[in-house]
Amino acid sequence: MSSLFARLKSGTEQHHREIEVVIDPMKNFCSLNAYKVHVQKTWAFYRPLEEELAALDWTAVGINFVARRKTPLLEEDMCFLRIPHSQTKESKQPLDRTNLDFALGCLYVLEGATLGGQVISRHLAKLGIGPENGGRFFNGYGAKTGEMWKSFQTSATAYCVTDDQIDEAVNGAQSTFRKFLDSMIREELFVHVP
User: For residue 181, what is the domain's CATH number?
Assistant: First the structure.
């Protein structure tokens, strides 16, 4: 593991634990309604964050950000589950900074969530939900998930090499975790759906 990913992992261990408590599969995915609420909250967080990240020029990093966007997958799930976008408020929490080092830390969290989605997909299968019927987001890149993670690691490691860059990436990851946790616990971000 590169020093970048070792530092990202150690710098976000506590955040990982906090998120795992809030995103409890036995609670968040125990019923269709609980899952719908989770999808709403996730979309409310991802949409504005991905719009901000998309405004950056990722060519220097060697990452095709458009291919990594998850908002379209969430919107497919919302459409299938009949969750109207108009009833979901976005969690407008802008990035603390807009440089690529910080953004790589943000993307570390989003790409890591895609890996975790593979585990959640197994819980969703118990509800009869799969990628074809409301579970596209948690399916992530499907069979290519591991390959996409490795590609991200390679590009990020090649770009983010100095201590200052790595510090900035860790700050970006920590900030993203905090904002995601906040969006998961804020009731006003969503409307309960039947």
Answer: 1.20.910.10
Q: How many domains does the chain have?
A: 1
Domain assignment present for 190: no
Domain holding 27, by residue range, is 3-185
Q: What is the four-CA torsion angle of 13, 19, 21, 26, rounded to 10 degrees?
A: -130
DSSP code of residue 143: G
Question: Residue 42 and residue 91: Cα distance in Å, rounded?
Answer: 9
Locate tokens 């970048």: which residue?
A: 4
- Residue at 178 is within a domain: yes
Spatial neighbors of 40 by CB under 8 A, at least 6 apart, are: 78, 83, 87, 88, 189, 190, 191, 193
Count of Cβ atoms closer than 10 Å to residue 188 Cβ: 7
- Is 193 contained in some domain? no
The identity of residue 68, as a single letter, is R
pTM, rounded to two decimals? 0.90
Handedness of CA 14, 18, 24, 29 (dihedral sign): negative
- pLDDT tens across the length of the chain (194 residues): 579 999 999 999 999 899 888 887 777 788 899 899 899 989 989 999 999 999 999 999 999 999 999 999 999 999 999 998 765 555 566 666 779 999 999 999 999 999 989 888 988 998 899 999 999 999 999 999 999 999 999 999 999 999 999 999 999 999 999 999 988 887 544 444 43
- Is 139 inside any structural domain? yes
